[in-house]
């Protein structure tokens, strides 16, 4: 209902009340962890949200221009939030201040809540941008087009790091345009394709890569859009498949972390080329994005052969929002 709202004044009044509440819940979630003050990234997170809360509370309801510029400023200032929260929780885990399940629970709760505030903020900025889109949702999102662009970007990245990239074959089974947040679909597709391209490239030499394409099928019925990504990259050991959904799990070397952390939260990364892997958030965060909009992401492995990722997306636009959570007892 909120994303269908095109009355800027009504949406502004809602956000002036709702965003500080959500940020306060995020702070409560952070402060519910013992020893959080001992870790610099956690202190930065608290400072950013406290400042955002204070700045928004100072804006009169009738000052539309001040609200818009402040919201833009807060989004820019918080653009590296993912890097801070992931590094902060990993530092706490390394110092034995958090257990593995606590890290994953906290990041799931924190980052899912952050998706909601990001969508709401982006919706207001979209409908008040002169000559811009009228919603953060593309009413006729073309998943095939998104897949092709994500494949192009992921292949370019793969060639940069490995000198080659296997081809990506895209099969379009019928017309499946549907209302969706294209930015999120692009992120999910890029992460899944990047993983598949890396797996194939690391398994075969340059000549053999061309013989093992990554295959993508896009199809759907009246209620669901389904995207399957299949590769022959060797798969994942069956006893390790569940680990891919952990924010602590990665098969890549740690040196990729800085670049990938920079590249995710920023809309544009002019500092350099993102890493192929290493930050450990691609799959769990992709699953969060899918779940938030009423879909689901599944991964099946065939050991010593490859993996199949299935993304199911709600085509009806009737998903309910996952509301910000209170800290677990």
UniProtKB/TrEMBL annotation:
Cell location: Mitochondrion matrix
Biological process according to GO? regulation of glucose metabolic process
Which reactions is this enzyme annotated as catalysing?
L-seryl-[pyruvate dehydrogenase E1 alpha subunit] + ATP = O-phospho-L-seryl-[pyruvate dehydrogenase E1 alpha subunit] + ADP + H(+)
Q: Which domain of life is it from?
A: Eukaryota
Q: What is this protein called?
A: Protein-serine/threonine kinase
Q: What GO cellular component is one of the record's annotations? A: mitochondrial matrix
Q: Where does the Histidine kinase domain start and stop, copy by copy?
A: 185-317
Q: Which PANTHER family match?
A: [PYRUVATE DEHYDROGENASE (ACETYL-TRANSFERRING)] KINASE, MITOCHONDRIAL, PYRUVATE DEHYDROGENASE KINASE
Q: Where is the signal peptide?
A: none
Supply the enzyme class, top level: transferase
Q: What is its EC number?
A: 2.7.11.-
Quote the InterPro entries the UniProt record gives. AK/P_DHK_N_sf, BCDHK/PDK_N, BCKD/PDK, HATPase_C_sf, HATPase_dom, His_kinase_dom
Taxonomic lineage from the root:
Eukaryota, Sar, Alveolata, Dinophyceae, Peridiniales
What the record says about family reads: Belongs to the PDK/BCKDK protein kinase family.
Annotated GO molecular function terms are: ATP binding; pyruvate dehydrogenase (acetyl-transferring) kinase activity
Keywords attached to this entry: ATP-binding, Kinase, Mitochondrion, Nucleotide-binding, Transferase
């Amino acid at each position: 209902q909120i994303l269908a709202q095109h009355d800027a004044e009504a949406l502004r009044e809602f956000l002036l009340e709702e965003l500080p509440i959500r940020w306060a819940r995020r702070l409560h979630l952070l402060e519910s962890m013992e020893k959080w003050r001992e870790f610099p990234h956690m202190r930065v997170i608290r400072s950013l949200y406290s400042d955002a809360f204070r700045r928004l509370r100072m804006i009169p309801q009738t000052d539309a221009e001040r609200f818009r510029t402040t919201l833009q400023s807060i989004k820019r200032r918080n653009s590296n939030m993912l890097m801070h929260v992931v590094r902060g929780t990993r530092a706490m885990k390394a110092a034995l201040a958090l257990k593995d399940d606590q890290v994953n629970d906290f990041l799931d709760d924190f980052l899912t809540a952050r998706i909601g505030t990001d969508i709401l903020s982006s919706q207001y900025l979209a409908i008040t941008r002169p000559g811009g889109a009228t919603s953060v949702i593309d009413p006729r999102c073309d998943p095939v087009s998104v897949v092709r662009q994500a494949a192009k970007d992921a292949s370019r990245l793969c060639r940069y790091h490995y000198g080659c990239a296997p081809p990506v074959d895209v099969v379009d089974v019928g017309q499946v345009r549907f209302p969706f947040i294209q930015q999120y679909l692009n992120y999910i597709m890029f992460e899944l394709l990047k993983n598949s391209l890396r797996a194939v490239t690391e398994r075969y030499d340059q000549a053999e890569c061309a013989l093992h394409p990554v295959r993508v099928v896009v199809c759907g019925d009246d209620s669901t859009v389904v995207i399957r990504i299949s590769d022959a990259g060797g798969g994942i050991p069956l006893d390790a498949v569940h680990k891919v959904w952990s924010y602590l799990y990665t098969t890549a070397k740690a040196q990729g972390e800085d670049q990938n952390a920079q590249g995710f939260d920023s809309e544009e990364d002019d500092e350099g080329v993102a890493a192929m892997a290493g930050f450990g958030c691609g799959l769990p965060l992709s699953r969060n994005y899918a779940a938030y909009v009423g879909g689901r992401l599944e991964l099946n492995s065939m050991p010593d052969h490859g993996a199949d990722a299935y993304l199911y997306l709600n085509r009806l636009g009737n998903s309910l929002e996952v509301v910000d959570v209170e800290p677990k007892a």
